[in-house]
Every structure is written in structure tokens, then in C-alpha cells.
Amino acid sequence: MDLVGSELRATPDVYPLAFDAEQDSVYFVRLDRGRYEAASFLDQRVIGPGDQGGWAPWSAVRPAAAPLAGDSDFIFHVGHVGSTLLARLLGLSDRVFSLREPGALRTIAALAGDLQTPESLLSEAAFDERRDVLLRLWARTYAPAQRALIKATSMVGEIAPMLLQHAASSRALLVTVAPEVYMATILGGPASRVELRAMAQSRLRRLHRRIGEPLWRLHAMSEGELVAMSWAAEMAGLVEAAERFPGRVAWLDFERFLERPEAGLVAGLQRLHGEASPADLRRMLNSPLFGRYAKGLEHAYDANLRRQVLDQARREHAATLAAGRDWLQRAAAASPVVARSLSAAPG
Question: Could you tell me which CATH class the domain 6-344 is placed in?
């Protein structure tokens, strides 16, 4: 497999699956257009039996990608808010090449958090170079009329302002829900409650870094406080992006989107491309995706089932939700970062 030859510049088929900062190398795997369209996650989960792939040193990747140019658009979100459904629907447009959750972008976000520490594996200049080259690789499309749309993992929202700053033509959709809806969503699923605890340390660390001082102790926080803190941590980067680049982003409340999907799709397409063609809208609104679970299309899932799950979570976890709401009010009084997130939240 020619990892860094002319094919790298000509087609997205040679996909940068992973970046290893310690070895300073990129793992490429061969995909095709159908694989991109099917994948919910463009990380190790996309690899299948017999796939061709291999590592290439950065010293070879950098010059091979040097002629590439172009920016991508983004979907940033707080997690569990229908961003995969939105990315799949928008990907039905002939003008959109949808990439869902590139794994190497999560690595870039993690490395960005270490940049100001003595333990950073990369200098700022080296980090900037690797981020920008990977972004140019993700910006490749299969047709000249297409523009890449990267649906990031929720943690990548932490660096949304950085990504928009360094990609001057990029636009972004910021997908969220009201804190109470987010908390009920997480509490309504056993797997998401496990994820809540697994991600709590990194989220609190990120929130404290933004605030500039440690205000809470993880071991002392209840589940309700953890889920509220998680919303605040994931929301903070989106709020900064909206404050710094108001003309290049659009908020989308997923609850309102489910009530009026056409209005949400029109707003999204207009922000990304300046217009929403009737043909694109018909294709999206008539899509069977509305009745499926977007991360696993084999499973049925629709707005009614989502509503049932939320209502059940509200009944079963009323005290936990109340603790989360109380924590948010106290946190907003203690921190302008949390206060701005609450102000930006859907009403």
C-alpha cells in the first residue's frame, strides 16, 4: 500500500486513522466512499478483516501532504444530542462529505490540553503543524463540489475555538440541549451512566483549566453533580467558539430539531453553504434515518422512543436531577464560565 504517494493527495481513500505522538507517525487505512458513508465512527472501529493499512513517519507524511489545501466544516456538540443523526442527514447532500468522529482528532484534542505543561510531547509549533496537516487530509473530498463536514467527538468541542481560528473559512454547527434534557438522557441509559464516571476526571480537569482554579473535588461529587458538571464542561468550548466567531457558527437545539426538523436542516445548510436546496431537504426529510438509531442503523429509534426514555429517567431519577440543577446554579454563581454556558443553553 502506497501510504504517502500521489494517491494520498488525490483521494480520501487513504485515510489517516490514528496519530501516535510518541512515535510521531500516522496510521493510514484504505477506505472507499461506501465505507465512509456507513461508518458511525472513523476510528479503530471502522477497520474490518483484511483491510490494508500501515504506519507512516511524520517525516514522510508532511511533504506528501504539503500540496493539499482547504478547510472543513464542523459539528461540535455536548454528547448524546443527535449529532450523528444530523451528520448523516446532512451527508445526504451532494455538497457534503460527512466524516463522523475521526479518532486522530480526539488525539489532537488531548495533545492540545497538554501544550502548556512541561510534560507536553510536542512543542506548540510541532503541534500546529500536525493539526493543520491532518485537517487538510480530512478536507479531501470525492467531488469538487463537495466540502467536508467533520462531526467531532464531544470532547473535541474543547478545542472548537482553536480549530475555527486556524481554519479561516470553516463554519460550525453547535448542537446542544437544555441541561435537564442532557442529564435525563445520560441517567436514562446504563451505558451512558458508566461513561459518565469514566469521563468525569477528564471533564472536571478541562473545566477547572478553563476556570483557572480548582473549585470542586471529584470524589465528593454525587452522580447528579457529575452529570451537571459534564454538561457544563462540554458546553464551555462551544460557548467560547460562539463568542469568538459569531458569524461562523449556528446553535442547534436537538429537542427543537426533533419538533421541527425542516427548520433545523434549513438553518444548518444555510450556515454551512449559504443556502438550503429543495432537493437536499426532500432527500433528508424523507430519509428512513429518522426512524433508526444513527450510531447503529440496525436498531429502531425515533422521537417517541426518546421521549419515553426521558420521561422514565425523570421519574426514576428525580432526586439526582434536582441535585444536578442545584449544582449548576451554585457553579454559575461561583464561575463566569459556567454562568455563560447556562446563559447560552436552550430555554
Answer: alpha beta
Rounded CA separation 2/7 (Å): 8
Helices (H), 21-123: 33-38, 58-65, 83-90, 103-114
Question: Are the C-beta atoms of residues 301 and 293 closer than 8 Å to each other?
Answer: yes
**Any idea where the domains of the chain sit in the sequence?**
6-344
Residue with cell 501516535: 20
193-241 pLDDT, tens digit per residue, is 999 999 999 999 999 999 999 999 999 999 999 999 999 999 999 999 9
What kind and span of H or E run contains 92? none
Q: Which residues sit opposite 55 in a β-bridge? A: 27
* Residues of the chain by 3-state class (helix, strand, coil), percent to 5: 55, 15, 30
Higher pLDDT residue, 301 or 170? 170
Dihedral sign from CA coordinates of 102, 104, 107, 113: negative
17-30 pLDDT per residue, tens: 999 999 999 999 99
**26 Cβ contact list (under 8 Å, min separation 6):** 16, 18, 19, 20, 55, 56, 58, 61, 104, 134
- Measure CA of the first residue to CA of the last residue in the chain; give whole Å: 52
**Measured distance CA(244)–CA(226) in Å, rounded:** 28
Q: List, for residues 152-179, the tens digit of each pLDDT value.
A: 999 999 999 999 999 889 999 999 999 9
| Contact assessment for residue 99 and residue 35, using Cβ atoms and an 8 Å cutoff | no
DSSP 18: E
The H helix count followed by the E strand count for the chain is 16, 10
Distances in whole angstroms, Cα of residue 144 to Cα of each of 30, 134, 147, 213, 274: 21, 19, 8, 47, 17
